[in-house]
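As a warm-up, study this chain.
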Amino acid sequence: MKIPLVNYSPENNIAYFPILKNANTYYKIYFNGVGWKAISPEKLNKDVVCFCHIRNPKERFIKGLTQVFETHGFSDEYKDRLRSNVIFLRIFHDQHLTPISEWLEGYMDRMKFIVMDHPKYTCNEITNIFLEQHSIENKVPLDGISKKSALKVLEIQDLIREQLLTDKGKEIYSIFIKPKYQIDIDMYDKAYRKIE
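Now compare it with the structure written out below.
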């Protein structure tokens, strides 16, 4: 799976790669609004600085699975199946669950990662520091990203987290989910350590 379009600033020779479940809509709108062009990543020269946002892969999985449930309708049947059999978690495949490393195939070696969920700094603060380091004057508004999750979404996320904490959930996570996201986990840990 490849990202169809990136936001590119020819003046600054930098491109933003939007990743699902990583505030991609917010940042696409922002970068379009400040004049960055939406182009195919294949059109980027090799010297273009590439960056994207990254969140804790386990949380991204939870948010992605929640999106799948929202898309297909999260009925009481889903809740009952999830509570009674956590293996239900591993049967889903959807673009919202695709590891970041698969989205970035062919670009990983030159990708810069901006951590979204640091306890001390907001995602926009870290983004602005990154942009400043690349001599980009536009600043992302610090009050930008809102927590737009409805109560039902938060309920689904909490239920998934709860199931991943059970013995069976931990087993499912370690056998089926973690290996799929291991490259993302390593990328996230490395990016997170750079901030500390």
